[in-house]
Input
Amino acid sequence: MAFASSPDRLAPTLTSAKIVVAGGFGVGKTTLVGRVSEIPPVNTEAWMTQASRTVDPLADTDEKTTTTVAMDFGRLRLSHDLILYLFGTPGQPRFWPMWDDLCRGASSALVLVDTRRLDVSFPAVNYFENDSDVPFVVAVNLFDGARTHPLDQVRDALGVAESVPLITVDARDRRSAVRALVASLRNTLEKTSPVTAR
Amino acid sequence: MTANPWVRPYVLTGGRTRTRHRLYVHTLVGVERYDPVAAARLSPEARRLYERAAVGPQSVAELSAHCGVSLGVTRVLLEDLSAAGQVQINDDAESAPYDHRLLKRVIDGLREFA
Output
């Protein structure tokens, strides 16, 4: 790995980008990340705690410092100078501070839903509608390879706006998973102005 | 998971809880010149992070996960290492994630991959 000679910065040509994969428990987040990642998805317990929590004088909050949360991510080297990271969100809403952390700086989000259990993905849809600026698309995971419900019905049931793209994906299939990720990035292209940083 | 469960996290960071830079979970960190003498002087946690980053540039999340150091503590320790010039933090991750040039590069890369 070549590094730049400037002391403070890592090879300026090496860039990382991030896509967040969200949805309820068991909708296929880890499967999708695993199909695309070149490393086995890292599934590890990270302390969700910011160190600041521990200096909170309230004894009650001390309990939170021991809360662990599964951090689930994969990595894909797209070219010599570009690495894409995929981060799965922890399922339970009580981990929302972690969601904020994971979503900060993300280029797009993919919210997976399972039509047999739409409700488990409601919190994720709510989150990206109300609490995050990251542009998102909703992807119906076709577990059995076949669409069981017309997408219009799914959209109605989820109550997502027409402006939010609704697509299908087979999380077990690498090409399908990649297409879904591309769709999420194209959505960001459409929803944002072409400002070039710096 | 954390290597030293008997120490509260802020002890490892000397009581500090905030970092000057925003280190995203996907911000890349690398080591330009590995210095074994400097490594020997680091705390066990900082040393693990330093040695891991020396293997090759990787994200804050990877360093945290592989070293068993919580994300919050990892951020503070990486900031220290950066201030001492021991690790290099890739500022590019702080550039706009919606930069269309970046988005198109990722899309192109993904299409090639599929």
Q: What stands out?
A: Chain B has one domain: 9-113. Chain B touches chain A through 60 residues (CB under 8 Å). The CA atoms of residues 99 and 105 of chain B lie 10 Å apart. Chain B has a mean pLDDT of 86.
